[in-house]
Design goal:
The structure holds two protein chains of two kinds. Chain A is mainly alpha-helical. Helices cover about 75% and strands about 0% of the residues of chain A. Chain A has twelve helices and no strands. Chain A has helices at about 5-20, 25, 35-50, 60-70, 70-95, 100-125, 130-135, 140-165, 175-200, 205-220, 220-225, 235-260. The relative contact order of chain A is 0.10. By secondary structure, chain B is an alpha/beta fold. Chain B folds into two domains: about 5-220, Rossmann fold, CATH 3.40.50; about 225-285, no CATH class. Chain B has helices at about 40-50, 65-70, 70-75, 90-100, 105-120, 135-150, 165-180, 190-195, 215-220, 235-245, 275-285, and strands at about 5-15, 15-25, 30-35, 55-60, 65, 75-80, 155-160, 185-190, 200-205, 210-215, 225-230, 245-250, 255-260, 270. Chain B has a six-stranded mixed β-sheet, sandwiched between helices. A four-stranded antiparallel β-sheet of chain B has the order 2-1-4-5. In chain B, a hairpin with a 2-residue loop joins strand 4 (about 55-60) and strand 5 (about 65). In chain B, helix 5 (about 105-120) packs antiparallel against helix 6. Classes of the chains: A mainly alpha, B alpha/beta. The interface between A and B is large, with 35 and 38 residues.
Chain lengths: ~270, ~290
């Protein structure tokens, strides 16, 4: 073959190659079994029809759901507690009570406020609701978490308010007043949660009230000891605070353990 | 279509084994769990709902352990507990709204679904009434409504008809029959007539074990040739009543017509009759 002919053939081959490439889809398409294709499409369509599309709510939607369905009484109590805390601080500052009296009063107030706030958690376990709530998408464990965080935030707010406003003027300072106020609060929360944990669904309003009163009375105890708020006893307060925190962790994990095992959620 | 598989599921409490090595596979259809009080039905149902954890064994939904499916499994679930809980200060409508939100039913669907369920259970006119004013039957109907709210693929009903009058029970049976397509419906009861007409599969539980499982025909075969009818004089009737499990007894003039369960013909003249579900229940559960 001559050189010119070779070039011409090469050009032709390249042209055929390009055209082939352009038509690859047509040339190399496998023969389709239309019947099988229809059958498969039918199966897929049926599977799609039967597939239930479920919506998974976001974290904030879950929180909103819990807040939205709280009773109006709950919000009145929470708002009332916060408002009373402000008025209480204002009154204590105005009247210039003694250091010990102010600390004792704040401690007792904080204890009652804590119990009021935990009422939202106790409600979840009331009236046999726990068993049903545990089977919902937003289950009991998550509900308890949300309510505990809510109660904790309100309590922390009040504690910060008391420590911030009262603590500055006290001899024991911010740090000292934090311990004096938080120890009765922690121990009362431990007692409240312990009662909630052991009483299953029978933690009635009466028991809540009784435990609340008992905690309130107990928080008066340091005020009865003349030197209880003296700096030399700070180590005892610190130890009690650490033990209180540890017990609180034990009680909270106990509640979650109960929910996880489920035995205590069911009445019979 | 969901499939629930229980593999050697056992639940032990402190000193009692409530459920012993139960192995079953549940697919689309209505399943009726029958058994005496304390047979382990409620414990088994609670494990199916994820409220109780099995001591040993596994429960799988579509091949995945239900604990691992977590929220995804609970979203498929509708549950009516034996001791149905409610907040008495809620109205029926608000209670269903609350549960719809907790079941992650989208807001736009929830309203429609709540109305549908209230209508289905005959509580439409009571939606603004506080639950504390409800009768026992109304509370039970509300329980059925909440279980169906999220259009569950797995519907578990523990003693659903307790407290319902006969008309309500028939209405309930019809609702369940109509809704059974495409779901697993599990009913636990000791009222035989609750499941007789609607359950495709019957499971008899005794002392934590499933002793017999099958459709009405299969189950009926267990008591075939063991059900007898006899017209006795009062004295003999008393003797037979003490000796055998009697499923029916009625006075006919001076004589007493008895229907009872016995392995063999207990007396001359007794007629062998085809067993009903109550006879099978008595034979399997009541007859020791």
């Amino acid at each position: 073959m001559k050189k010119g002919e070779k070039e011409e053939k090469g050009k032709m081959d390249r042209r055929i190659g390009r055209e082939d490439l352009e038509n690859t889809e047509i040339i190399w398409r496998f023969p389709l079994n239309e019947q099988k294709k229809e059958e498969n499409l039918k199966t897929i369509r049926q599977a799609v029809l039967h597939k239930r599309i479920r919506k998974f709510p976001s974290f904030w939607e879950i929180v909103w759901c819990q807040m939205h369905f709280q009773s109006w009484r709950h919000w009145i109590v929470q708002g009332g507690v916060l408002l009373t805390a402000f008025l209480f601080t204002y009154m204590l500052q105005k009247r210039k009570f003694g250091e010990n009296d102010s600390l004792a009063a704040c401690s007792v107030f904080l204890v009652f406020a804590g119990n009021f706030c935990l009422n939202g958690v106790a409600r979840l376990f009331s009236r046999n609701m726990a068993e049903l709530e545990q089977t919902l998408y937003l289950n009991l464990k998550q509900m308890v978490c949300i309510r505990m965080v809510e109660a904790g935030l309100v309590d922390l707010g009040i504690l910060a308010l008391f420590v911030g406003t009262m603590g500055r003027g006290l001899e024991s300072g911010l740090w000292g007043s934090l311990f004096y106020m938080s120890v009765p609060f922690l121990w009362s929360a431990v007692l409240y949660l312990h009662m909630l944990r052991i009483s299953r669904s029978r933690f009635s309003v009466f028991w809540q009230f009784a435990v609340g009163m008992l905690c309130g009375v107990m928080s008066f105890f340091p005020a009865c000891i003349a030197q209880a708020y003296e700096p030399k006893y700070m180590q005892i307060w610190q130890s009690l605070c650490i033990i209180g925190v540890l017990l609180l962790v034990v009680e909270v994990s106990g509640i979650f353990g109960n929910i996880e095992r489920g035995d205590n959620l069911c009445l019979s | 279509m969901p499939e629930l598989k229980l593999d050697r599921v056992t639940k032990r409490f402190k000193n009692k084994t409530a459920v012993k090595e139960v192995t079953i596979c549940l697919q689309e259809g209505v399943y009726g769990f029958l058994g005496a009080n304390g047979a382990g039905k409620t414990t088994l149902l609670r494990m199916l709902c994820g409220v109780l954890k099995p001591t040993s064994g596994e429960i799988r939904c579509n091949g995945i352990e239900i604990g691992k499916l977590d929220g995804e499994y609970r979203q498929m679930l509708g549950y009516l507990p034996q001791n149905f809980g409610y907040y008495p200060d809620f109205t029926a409508g608000r209670y269903l709204e609350y549960l719809a939100a907790c079941k992650a039913v989208p807001k736009e669907q929830a309203k429609e679904k709540i109305q549908e369920m209230l209508w289905l259970t005959g509580l439409e006119s009571e939606q603004n009434v506080k639950i504390k004013a409800f009768s026992g039957g109304m509370v039970r109907r509300l329980g059925i409504a909440q279980a169906l709210l999220n259009d569950p693929e797995i519907l578990i009903l523990d003693e659903p008809t307790s407290g319902l009058d006969p008309k309500e029970r028939i209405r309930f049976r019809n609702i369940i029959s109509a809704l059974s397509k495409g779901r697993i419906v599990i009913l636990s009861t000791h009222i035989v007539s609750d499941v007789e007409f609607i359950a495709g599969e019957l499971l008899f539980m005794k002392q934590g074990k499933i002793i017999v499982q099958g459709d009405m025909e299969t189950v009926g075969r267990c008591a075939e040739g063991k059900v007898w009818e006899y017209l006795a004089d009062p004295e003999e009737a008393m003797r037979l009543n003490a000796a055998f499990a009697v499923s029916n007894l009625r006075n006919e003039g001076e004589q007493v017509h008895l229907r009872f369960i016995a392995e063999e013909c207990p007396c001359k003249g007794a007629l062998s009759v085809p067993p009903g579900l109550e006879d099978v229940y008595l034979y399997l559960i009541g007859h020791e």
